[in-house]
Design a protein that fits this description.
single chain, mainly beta, 16-stranded antiparallel barrel, globular, disordered N terminus
Length: 435
């Protein structure tokens, strides 16, 4: 039997450190003036708390630099009072158009064709363990890297008006989760700061199949919330969540407003299919950002797994912002994401994603001026992307993701190559290592 290397994270760490010497990767001062799908064995997508609550729990590692039944070596014992774990994630994207700005169109995630250390991610957690005895748990997530930008909260990582608080460079620190959990594994209440339960793809890189992100992830919904979220596992097949939060991505902002969240998840017979639905509604900035009006968004995920090797997920999302247009009319954005996965072997999985996202009023998709992206909206029209990729696990700790992506846009303005093109091709390679 072939013995697997016990120290794979040292190899990827060396790679990521070498990437940090690449041109364009160093943090620079910028002119900053603003602002439950499923997990899979080889990476996938996640909502809720970014982990599948129905998945079997592997036997935990019991010592330092020890492996659990999943084969993943952890630096710290996972049966300790507080579990400490995390990952390093980085990659490089090549753009067929070689834009002079290095920006991949109006992206706000993996937005440059340069080498990036995306996430040095650390989790401190104590989970609820009993289905019948009351307990107290907690979790804190800490993200340092290029991906800090999107999961920031107003009044926390940024000021209440969206201007920088402690992050002023291209690289920064975000704390996307910091919550207490009260109750049992059947009925519990989460209080504090947590990831949104709405949508398909998530912030943590270890739980996403693709290195690049969908438009619906980048522009359609919130990333985190501050508030309370109750959860009831009604049966092995049915789970409900409901809560109240301070809107989208905000601890404290110029106008605070309570929003309601509700989700439902059903798992079919023998896990052959599943259906999830989620909605958030509350007041958010309208076209005049000082004016807060109702914004409602829903997300529906339908999953099929007809065989052990084949999996298909469909994600539909829709949102409306009252007084979202300059003339006072509502603005709309919506779309459909399709994901197809095939497990070739235990160490190799293939995936494809096809997305259609419509920014009907041109109010959502735009490169961020905070990042210095010149590809700024409005881009009223239809965005399409077709992505193919592989997830290769040479070791349970190490994930390698090559990917090819084709973007095109149907509208009145070119969003790619600094306004020169209506399409682009991206090639990327990334690595993720758990510790």
């Amino acid at each position: 039997m072939k013995q697997k290397c016990k120290w794979p994270f040292l190899y990827l760490l060396a790679i990521l450190l070498s990437l940090s010497q690449a041109p364009g990767l160093h943090a620079e001062e910028l002119d900053v003036n603003e602002s439950e799908a499923r997990t899979t064995e080889l990476g996938g997508s996640a909502i809720e708390d970014q982990e599948d609550p129905t998945a079997d729990t592997p036997e935990l590692s019991q010592g330092f630099f020890d492996a659990g039944s999943d084969g993943v070596y952890r630096i710290f014992p996972q049966d300790a009072f507080i579990q400490v774990r995390g990952w390093l994630d980085g990659g490089y994207t090549w753009n067929s158009e070689s834009p002079s700005s290095n920006f991949n169109g109006p992206y706000n995630e993996k937005d440059r064709d340069i080498a990036q250390l995306n996430q040095a991610y650390l989790i401190l957690e104590r989970k609820l363990t009993s289905s019948h005895q009351f307990g107290v748990g907690f979790r804190g997530d800490f993200l340092y890297g290029y991906d800090f930008f999107l999961p920031q909260s107003k009044g926390f990582e940024t000021e209440d008006d969206g201007s920088p608080h402690w992050n002023h460079n291209r690289y920064g620190l975000a704390i996307p989760q910091l919550y207490a959990e009260l109750g049992t594994t059947v009925l519990n209440l989460k209080l504090g700061h947590f990831y949104t339960p709405i949508g398909y793809e998530g912030v943590p890189a270890a739980n996403n199949f693709f290195y690049s992100k969908s438009y619906s992830y980048q522009f359609a919904g919130p990333f985190t919330h501050w508030g309370g979220l109750g959860k009831w596992k009604a049966s092995d097949s049915m789970t409900f969540q409901a809560g109240l939060v301070n809107g989208w991505d905000a601890l404290d902002r110029t106008t605070d407003s309570v929003a309601g969240i509700a989700t439902a998840h059903y798992k079919g017979h023998k896990d052959l299919w599943s259906l999830s639905a989620a909605m958030i509604s509350g007041s958010e900035p309208a076209y005049d950002s000082s004016n807060f009006e109702n914004r409602t968004r829903y997300s529906v995920i339908l999953g099929f797994k007809p065989t052990e090797r084949l999996q298909y997920d469909l994600h539909h999302n829709f949102a409306v912002q009252q007084e979202g247009k300059a003339n006072g009319d509502p603005s709309y954005w919506y779309g459909i994401d399709n994901y197809l996965y095939y497990t070739v072997m235990d160490e190799l999985k293939a995936g494809m994603r096809f997305e259609w996202f419509r920014d009907e009023s041109g109010t959502r998709v735009s490169g961020s001026p905070v990042r210095g992206n010149p590809n700024q909206g409005s881009f009223a029209g239809n965005f399409y992307s077709l992505t193919g990729g592989l997830n290769y696990l040479p070791h349970p700790n190490l994930l390698i993701r090559p990917e090819i992506r084709y973007d095109w846009f149907s509208g009145d303005k070119n969003p790619y190559d600094d306004g020169g093109k209506s399409s682009q091709i991206l090639l990327s390679i990334s690595g993720n290592i758990k510790f």
